[in-house]
Each structure stands twice: as structure tokens, then as C-alpha cells.
């Protein structure tokens, strides 16, 4: 496991500020948005569709604190980009949008370093103000949208969206889920495709390496992975990039790639300041989480006896809820992972709480892998790996 201290020089222009929103392409945007409101405690925010003059695509934006998800579906029959995307990938993340400063500079820098610009910067406006946008191609079919505010914008979300008036009286009676902001998003790659993606972020978006771990640490008796985390200069946008490593059976990364039909976003980590209450309430709303073996907590209790850090939370409660703990001498994190949120075993969510700990739960990967492998086995996908390539070094 490696942490990288060299951030490089601070860019003079083109700062990436934070995650702005995440766009999903789905078969039925209205129902998908309602699912996340029902299960994960989001609220309907804004809408764009036939009633607002959008003739091709419908968009439902939902929000919880600083998290905004946008669900989009095609309005018309026939073969278009969205229908092809859905046929190949199923429901999933299409775009990760960043709030930026100096969109023009970012686009020019990305293009100079080899990025494909899908939409050059353009202005959208309504009675609430103006927003500058641009779209670039990332890995696989994923895109990144830059969102710049040349002047203050007072609308609910973005120009063209109208206030959503959907109100479900039953949802107001459900417990709040206490999810605050996007902590990170994880992108899975086919074998030997991770490093080019890392280089793309470093060169095109001026990111730097933040953290990495290889398959010597991240493995079980059956499967393994390699992971490198990239981040912007301010370290407010973190994207771990994974690839599978050779193992006796198909890894969870390879399972994702197979069912998604290529590289894509495997999971979204949502930060909370009270994970015990958040998970308790999410379970009350019907969210299904991976189950952690009891042996994990027996080993954890033994390790914490000699650790220099003290976990404030009730360990018995963490065990009851199956929340994982990782730590170092400075702090710790608490995390838990949902089961896939659609029929294909692709996208899932993570709930995470941090106490002065910037890692990504490497100490929990064994327990996580074993839990995922139990689910893989139930799907008939924990099968022998047929790739006979010799193991390669981690870079």
C-alpha cells in the first residue's frame, strides 16, 4: 500500500472544485429516481422532459444534502446512443460532473493532452442566470461534464430544469438516511487497462496519484485486484481505478466488466457523519447490505487491543450492523457496502464515515472480497479463471 505525497505544482487555472452531480442512464428515469428516494432517502429536486421542451431525453434530478443524482431516459423509440448504451451496460453511471473554475482552460488543456472533447464549452441560461458547460470523453463510455458558474446562479439545479412537485406522503414518515456528500467513485477496468486510464487523468485533468495498493495485499484464495486512486489538486475529487489480477477464480472486478460490457463505475461512496444511524435507517427503508463474517469482528477486537487508535463507536453495534473498520495510527474509517442496486451485478453503493483517515479500507478488503465472493457464488459466477497469463508487476 502506497500513499503519494507529491501533488505537483498547483495549476494556475482550471481548478476542479468538487463533484457537482452524477448522471445515470437508465431504462425508466422516473422509477429509478423514485427507488433512490424510497430506499436511500433522496428527495425529488428538478425535472426536464416533454413539459419543459426537452423532446429527446427526460431527466429527473434528486438530492440529499450535497449529493445530486440525475436519472435520464430516452423519450423516443428507435436506436440511439442511449438505447445502445443501455443494451450493452444496463442501468449505470454515464457521466460524472465536476464544478470547475475556467472551463475553457480545462478543455484546452485536456484536448492538448489527447482528450476527446465531445462538446466544446457552451452557455446555457434561464431567468436564474447562466452556466457554462463542456463534456469530455473519459474511460469506456463514461464522460465528464465541466460545470462553471461565470456569475451566481440562483436556480434549483441547471438551466432548463423545473421544480419537481412529486410529493410522496409515505416518504416523509421514513427515517432520514444522513448521507452528506460524495466521498469517491470507483472505476473498474479490464486487465492491463488501468495504467493508461491513470495516465489520462494525470495528463488531461491535471490529477495526481493519491493512494495505491497491489494484488499482494488485495486478494483472497480465489481473486485479487490492483487499485490506484487519482485526485485533483485540492483532493476533493477522488477516483480509485481498479483492474483484476490473476486468481484461481473470476474476480469481482472481472465479474463487473463482464456484466457491464466493459469498463465503468463500480460503486459510489457516500459520506455520512453518523454511520450507525445512517445504516440503521437505510436498513429500515429496505436497503440490502453485504454481510461480513463473524470471524472478522473477532479478529478486529484482538487487533484493536494493541492499536494506538481508539474507535469511539460501540463495537457491538458495528458488529450487529456489519460495518467494517479500518485504521492507522492517526485515525480510522467505518464503511459498509450495499448489494448491487440493479439486476446485473454491477453498480452498488458504499456508506463511509472518516475520522482523520484518508485511506480506502485496504484493511477491510479481505472481508469485503469474501462477502462479494459469497454473493458471486450465489449467482453462479465464482468460477475458475481461465486466463493463464503469468502475473505482472504492479507499477
TrEMBL record:
<dbReference type="GO" id="GO:0006572">
    <property type="term" value="P:L-tyrosine catabolic process"/>
</dbReference>
<keyword id="KW-0223">Dioxygenase</keyword>
<keyword id="KW-0828">Tyrosine catabolism</keyword>
<dbReference type="GO" id="GO:0005789">
    <property type="term" value="C:endoplasmic reticulum membrane"/>
</dbReference>
<dbReference type="Pfam" id="PF00903">
    <property type="entry name" value="Glyoxalase"/>
</dbReference>
<feature type="binding site">
    <location>
        <position position="184"/>
    </location>
    <ligand>
        <name>Fe cation</name>
    </ligand>
</feature>
<comment type="subunit">
    <text>Homodimer.</text>
</comment>
<dbReference type="GO" id="GO:0006559">
    <property type="term" value="P:L-phenylalanine catabolic process"/>
</dbReference>
<dbReference type="GO" id="GO:0042803">
    <property type="term" value="F:protein homodimerization activity"/>
</dbReference>
<keyword id="KW-0560">Oxidoreductase</keyword>
<keyword id="KW-0256">Endoplasmic reticulum</keyword>
<dbReference type="InterPro" id="IPR041735">
    <property type="entry name" value="4OHPhenylPyrv_dOase_C"/>
</dbReference>
<keyword id="KW-0472">Membrane</keyword>
<dbReference type="InterPro" id="IPR041736">
    <property type="entry name" value="4OHPhenylPyrv_dOase_N"/>
</dbReference>
<dbReference type="InterPro" id="IPR004360">
    <property type="entry name" value="Glyas_Fos-R_dOase_dom"/>
</dbReference>
<keyword id="KW-0963">Cytoplasm</keyword>
<keyword id="KW-0585">Phenylalanine catabolism</keyword>
<comment type="function">
    <text>Catalyzes the conversion of 4-hydroxyphenylpyruvic acid to homogentisic acid, one of the steps in tyrosine catabolism.</text>
</comment>
<dbReference type="InterPro" id="IPR005956">
    <property type="entry name" value="4OHPhenylPyrv_dOase"/>
</dbReference>
<feature type="binding site">
    <location>
        <position position="350"/>
    </location>
    <ligand>
        <name>Fe cation</name>
    </ligand>
</feature>
<dbReference type="GO" id="GO:0003868">
    <property type="term" value="F:4-hydroxyphenylpyruvate dioxygenase activity"/>
</dbReference>
<feature type="domain" description="VOC">
    <location>
        <begin position="18"/>
        <end position="149"/>
    </location>
</feature>
<keyword id="KW-0677">Repeat</keyword>
<keyword id="KW-0408">Iron</keyword>
<feature type="domain" description="VOC">
    <location>
        <begin position="181"/>
        <end position="339"/>
    </location>
</feature>
<dbReference type="GO" id="GO:0046872">
    <property type="term" value="F:metal ion binding"/>
</dbReference>
<comment type="pathway">
    <text>Amino-acid degradation; L-phenylalanine degradation; acetoacetate and fumarate from L-phenylalanine: step 3/6.</text>
</comment>
<comment type="similarity">
    <text>Belongs to the 4HPPD family.</text>
</comment>
<protein>
    <recommendedName>
        <fullName>4-hydroxyphenylpyruvate dioxygenase</fullName>
    </recommendedName>
</protein>
<keyword id="KW-0333">Golgi apparatus</keyword>
<dbReference type="InterPro" id="IPR029068">
    <property type="entry name" value="Glyas_Bleomycin-R_OHBP_Dase"/>
</dbReference>
<dbReference type="GO" id="GO:0000139">
    <property type="term" value="C:Golgi membrane"/>
</dbReference>
<dbReference type="InterPro" id="IPR037523">
    <property type="entry name" value="VOC_core"/>
</dbReference>
<feature type="binding site">
    <location>
        <position position="267"/>
    </location>
    <ligand>
        <name>Fe cation</name>
    </ligand>
</feature>
<keyword id="KW-0479">Metal-binding</keyword>
Amino acid at each position: 500500500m502506497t500513499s503519494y505525497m507529491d501533488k505537483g505544482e498547483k495549476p494556475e487555472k482550471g481548478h476542479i472544485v468538487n463533484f457537482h452531480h452524477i448522471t445515470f442512464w437508465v431504462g425508466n428515469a422516473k422509477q429509478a429516481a423514485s427507488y433512490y428516494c424510497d430506499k436511500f432517502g433522496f428527495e425529488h429536486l428538478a425535472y426536464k422532459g416533454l413539459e419543459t421542451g426537452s423532446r429527446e431525453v427526460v431527466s429527473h434530478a434528486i438530492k440529499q444534502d450535497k449529493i445530486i443524482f440525475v436519472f435520464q431516459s430516452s423519450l423516443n423509440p428507435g436506436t440511439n446512443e442511449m438505447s445502445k448504451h443501455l443494451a450493452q451496460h444496463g442501468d449505470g453511471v454515464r457521466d460524472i460532473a465536476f464544478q470547475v473554475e475556467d472551463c475553457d482552460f480545462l478543455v484546452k488543456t485536456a484536448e492538448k493532452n489527447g482528450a476527446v472533447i465531445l462538446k466544446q464549452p457552451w452557455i446555457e441560461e434561464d431567468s436564474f442566470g447562466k452556466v457554462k458547460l463542456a463534456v469530455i470523453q473519459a474511460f469506456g463510455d463514461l464522460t465528464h461534464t465541466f460545470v462553471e458558474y461565470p456569475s451566481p446562479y440562483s436556480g434549483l439545479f441547471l438551466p432548463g430544469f423545473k421544480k419537481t412537485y412529486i410529493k410522496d406522503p409515505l416518504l416523509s414518515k421514513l427515517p432520514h438516511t444522513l448521507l452528506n456528500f460524495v466521498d469517491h467513485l470507483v472505476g473498474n477496468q479490464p486487465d492491463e487497462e488501468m495504467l493508461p486510464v491513470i495516465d489520462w487523468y494525470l495528463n488531461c485533468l491535471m490529477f495526481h496519484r493519491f493512494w495505491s495498493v497491489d494484488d499482494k495485499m488485495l486478494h483472497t484464495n480465489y481473486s485479487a485486484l490492483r487499485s490506484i486512486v487519482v485526485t485533483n489538486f485540492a483532493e476533493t475529487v477522488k477516483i480509485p481505478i481498479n483492474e483484476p489480477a490473476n486468481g484461481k477464480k473470476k474476480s469481482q472486478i472481472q465479474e463487473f466488466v463482464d456484466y457491464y460490457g466493459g469498463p465503468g463505475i463500480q460503486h459510489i461512496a457516500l459520506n455520512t457523519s453518523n454511520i450507525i444511524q445512517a445504516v440503521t435507517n437505510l436498513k429500515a427503508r429496505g436497503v440490502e447490505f453485504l454481510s461480513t463474517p463473524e470471524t472478522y469482528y473477532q479478529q478486529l477486537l484482538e487487533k484493536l487491543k494493541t492499536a494506538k487508535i481508539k474507535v469511539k463507536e460501540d463495537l457491538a453495534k458495528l458488529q450487529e450492523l456489519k460495518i467494517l473498520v479500518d485504521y492507522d495510527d492517526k485515525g480510522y474509517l467505518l464503511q459498509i457496502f450495499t448489494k448491487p442496486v440493479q439486476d446485473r451485478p454491477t453498480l452498488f453503493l458504499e456508506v463511509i464515515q472518516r475520522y482523520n483517515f484518508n485511506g480506502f479500507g485496504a484493511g477491510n478488503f479481505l472481508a469485503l472480497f469474501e462477502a462479494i465472493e459469497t454473493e458471486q457464488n450465489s449467482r453462479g459466477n465464482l468460477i475458475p479463471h481461465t486466463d493463464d497469463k503469468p502475473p505482472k508487476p504492479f507499477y
